[in-house]
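Reviewer comment 2.1 asked that we show a complete input and output for one of the modelled complexes. We chose the adenosine-5'-triphosphate case, as it is the one discussed in the main text.
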Amino acid sequence: MAEIHLKKLAHSYSANPKFTSEYAIREMDHVWEQGGAYALLGPSGCGKSTLLNIISGLLSPSEGEVLFDGERVNDLTPSQRNIAQVFQFPVIYDSMTVFDNLAFPLRNMKVPESKVKKKVFEIAEILELQDVLHNKAKNLSADEKQKVSMGRGLVRDDVSAILFDEPLTVIDPHLKWKLRRKLKQIHEQFNITMVYVTHDQLEAATFADKIALMYDGNIVQFGTPRELFEKPNHTFVGYFIGSPGMNFIEVARCAGGVEFAGITFPVDAGIQDILDQVPTDNLKLGIRPEFVHVCAESIEGSFECDIKHIEDLGTYKIITLDLKGRTLKARIDEDQQIPEHKVYVSFPKQWLKLYVDEYLIEGDS
Ligand code: ATP
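Response of the prediction step:
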């Protein structure tokens, strides 16, 4: 297994890119440590597959380097890089049995047959394929085929890394959680560097120790699922992570902090120093719906809101509120009783985040 280092890496599909918008991957420096379980998360078109294909060697980057354990691999073929890749759709030999499909990558490496057998049985057991080991792959269900495809990626324990490109897309929804757990189990057992591409935040959070969130060709934040939730460093992260995403309210500078519609939000001295230095007026306050405090009665520091809409989602409710002309979402427990038309909201200071030109600013108080 290897540490993967992307050094000043950029990629454009156009031969002579003239504008930054022509880059699928914008210049980035990023390290995936040896043995980690990582997710590469982001919306469609943000560059996830491009990045994965550059790491595996299926695509040559227009700029920068890919290093495995400090060694440049740009000029190595995919097989020389010793990377296993599992794709969205099954890549298996239909005419072979499940056993032979799983054994294929090992036999290709001239692994002794006794070890092949041991390894194939081990992976088949984890993926619950024992009962179909001697069936022809063409007779399998779509789920089973994808499990075999995953098994082919997982069967070798000498690989530098395993890359998964949305491997559960074709899997039946009720089986997905089970396979996610299996992949996690395999990672814990074999400790191989794994990078898992997905656009599904739940999939990313259950699989990965750390998530790299991509947006428009950049990794905007790299952190634990909790860090991305509690401290999004960019408005996009706040918006993309969470359901619904973070609330953002445009604010203006005022004495002692920022304000909107006559409501002042004081800021710490460190943040005030930064605010004094930045010329932009693109200022937003962000707060997660989960952290908006909702009360039936007015309390100190609370603001009256009209209720626009209530969505009852069984175990919790999402309320859409109007706070002095701004829309705000709050998440409350199913059993919290609230009046029909009006509530009072307050914002715990530690969960109120200030964004300048879309980036989080923090300061020492
Ligand atoms: P998805 O989740 O939909 O697969 P993604 O995040 O994996 O998306 P990429 O497929 O890497 O994104 O695409 C990144 C950008 O590069 C997109 O604008 C896409 O249109 C463009 N792109 C991808 N492949 C090619 C290609 N072969 N030729 C030209 N442009 C491409």
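The two ends are 43 Å apart (CA to CA). We note this here for comparison with the apo prediction described in Section 3.2.
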